[in-house]
Each structure stands twice: as C-alpha cells, then as structure tokens.
Amino acid sequence: MGYTGCVPIKAVAFDIDGTMYSSTLFNLRMIPFGLRNARLMATFARVRRELHARSRDSGRREAAARSGRAFRQSQAELFGSHLGIAREEAERRLDAVVYGELESSFSKVRLFKGLVPALESLKSAGLRLAALSDFPAARKLELLGLSRYFELALSSEDSGLLKPAPEPFQDLARALGLDASEILYVGNSLACDLAGALAAGMPVAIVGHRPAPGAELRFTDWRRLVDFVLSRRS
Q1: Phi, psi of 87 (to 5 degrees)
Q2: 74 and 84 in contact (C-beta within 8 Å)?
Q3: For residue range 63-106, what is the model confidence (pLDDT) as tens digits?
Q4: What residues does each domain of the chain span?
Q5: Dihedrals φ, ψ of 229, to 5°?
Q6: Per CATH, domain 11-22+110-231 is 3.40.250.10
Q7: pLDDT in tens, 200-214
Q8: What is the rounded CA–CA span in Å between residue 137 and residue 202?
Q9: SS3 37
Q10: Phi, psi of 155 (to 5 degrees)
Q11: How many Cβ atoms from other residues are within 10 Å of residue 210's Cβ?
Q12: What is the full per-residue pLDDT of the chain (234 aa) written as tens digits?
C-alpha cells in the first residue's frame, strides 16, 4: 500500500497485545488461568466491551473524567455491578487477577520473530520509540524484555478512555512533543488501532494478512516495517 502523506516519520509507536506477539498462542497457553478464573475473566471481557463502546461514542467520551484513577473506578463499578459486589472488592479482584497474576505471565511470552531486530534497527537509526496499549504498558514491556528500546510507555487507561478513542493517541503525541502526523502507529486491530490512530491524525502500519484500508503499510515481515520507516524518516 503506497504512502499517501508527506510528513517525515520521527517516531514509531507500538501497540503490544497481538502486535508484538501472537494473541492466539498466548490465549492457548493461558487456558489453565482462564479455567481457574472463568467467571471473573468472562465478566471482565464484558466490561471491557462496554468501555470500548463508550470510547467510540463522542458524547460519552466528552463526559468521561480524563484520568487513570477515574477510569479504574468506572471499570470497577461496572465489574462490581455485574458480579453483585462492592466497587472496592471489585478493584481488589481486578488488581489481584487481571493486573497481577495475568500481567506477570508476560515474562514467558514468545515475541514475533523479527520484532527485536526491527526495534534495534529503528533505535540505532535514531527513531524515537514509544508504546501505547489499552493495558498498563511499562510493566508489560519490562516483562517482555523490551524496556530498553522505548523512551515512553503509555496506557490508554491513563487518558480515561480506551482505543479507538483518539484521545489516548493525542496524549501520546503530546508526551513525545510531536505532531500526530510525525508518529507512525503500529498495531494489529483495525477496529481499535487503525481507527483510533487515524482519528488522531497518525499514519498507521498494521501487522497481519487482512486488508487494512487506510493503513500506510500492512506487513508480516518486520524488515518491511524497518525499510518503510527508514525511507520516510526525517
């Protein structure tokens, strides 16, 4: 897919889940965890779908409190209401299982072949690298052994909204001190990564085989990403 913009790329920002590793393989490996926590994880998935839907609604986005703490409270209230428990207990369970036990499993994740050499090449070439995930990103990068490549790791939760809301991407651009058009966002989800980044004015590269209308690049070989970025850097 040809490049349609004219602004040089100064930074590359990455989604994590499904972009840096196979979500399918991860989910298979986490079956025992899922069975132990079946009701909790099913409820959490339902809550996240509701929060993603809110993030697609411009009116509800405008009403959202723009802070990570407010997001966590809202998430816990929804989670608690579905389980019939108080918000405080809901927060405790989420912290222990989702943001604790599940997150710690990332130390054993197998990254996509070619990802690490691509990060090394981009960083060596002087590109600024960042991460933006719907879940807390800094600890996940540390567990994946990738922290040294990234100058910035943000969670969309800190903006009070999830992808595909444009606000998390706009927060990323502000944190980097760059215009959104100068940041290439690399993700795997058309509904969340592609839609959200485009809404914020970022060019997008999509990992995968499916057609990705609107993306500047669709790839499975990480060397293609490096070649693309280096040909369009400042």
Answers
A1: -60, -40
A2: no
A3: 676 788 889 999 999 999 999 999 999 999 999 999 999 888 88
A4: 11-22+110-231, 25-107
A5: -65, -45
A6: no
A7: 999 999 999 999 999
A8: 20
A9: coil
A10: -110, 135
A11: 8
A12: 333 457 899 999 999 999 999 999 999 999 999 999 999 999 999 999 999 998 888 777 776 767 888 899 999 999 999 999 999 999 999 999 999 998 888 888 999 999 999 999 999 999 999 999 999 899 999 999 999 999 999 999 999 999 999 999 999 999 999 999 999 999 999 999 999 999 999 999 999 999 999 999 999 999 999 999 999 986
| 4: its two tokens | 């349609």
- The reported pTM is 0.91
Tell me, rounded to whole angstroms, the distance of Cα 186 from its chain centroid.
9
70 phi, psi to nearest 5 deg = -65, -40
Distances (CA, A) of 3 to 8, 200, 202, 222: 11, 18, 13, 17
Extended beta strands in 68-140, E state: 128-133
CA nearest 83: which of 75, 124, 19?
Answer: 75
Query: CA distances (Å), 116 to each of 14, 42, 123, 211, 233, in order?
Result: 13, 33, 11, 25, 20
Helix, strand, or coil here: 160? Answer: coil
